[in-house]
Specification:
Layout: E1 29-30, E2 37-38, H1 52-70, H2 89-107, H3 113-141, H4 147-168
Helix pairs in contact: 1-2, 1-3, 2-3, 2-4, 3-4
Length: about 170
């Protein structure tokens, strides 16, 4: 069964509507059930495509936060999600955490695998929570976090937390 946890974020319009140029005008687009133009927020010159960039921001922030908490140097060893076909955002997060766990275990050779897992699991959960907060804060500062996108990002965080619990609670 494939997990579909894509985040959908709509592009945001131009930055300076008061300048009076064509670049500053916000035009509605057809959409929704009525076919009428939908109003757009005109608050930033940033657009996130298909939610992948927000999910990548969550991934990056989570890996950084978890690496800091575990005392491991952040390393961009994991391939970008776009190069991993068929993998969901939450599975990508879990894969990154497993790679950090392997490095954590190598850094603490005196710990048994069970002890390493017990020590790493709460740090991974905390890293996910901090990464989520950081990603939401960045997107909010960019005015690129409408309530629907925040709910989808929250769902991704919850799915990743569930996968973490399953993976690191094994005996």
């Amino acid at each position: 069964m494939s997990i579909n946890d894509d985040i959908v974020i709509s592009p945001i319009g131009a930055v300076h509507p008061r300048l009076g140029s064509a670049a500053g005008k916000v035009e509605g687009r057809s959409g929704g059930h009525s076919g009428a133009p939908q109003p757009q927020d005109d608050s930033a010159d940033i657009g996130l495509s298909h939610g992948g960039q927000a999910a990548e921001l969550l991934f990056s922030a989570t890996m950084d936060q978890t690496a800091r908490l575990t005392g491991i140097e952040p390393e961009p060893a994991l391939r970008p999600e776009s190069e991993l076909p068929g993998i969901s955002h939450s599975q990508h997060l879990l894969l990154g955490m497993v790679m950090l766990f392997e490095r954590y275990g190598a850094r603490h050779p005196g710990l048994s695998p069970d002890e390493a897992r017990q020590a790493f699991a709460p740090l991974a959960r905390e890293g996910l929570e901090r990464g989520f907060l950081e990603a939401c804060q960045v997107l909010a500062q960019l005015n690129a976090l409408p309530p629907a996108a925040q709910a989808q990002l929250q769902g991704l965080r919850q799915m990743a937390a569930h996968l973490l619990d399953e993976r690191f609670s094994q005996a």
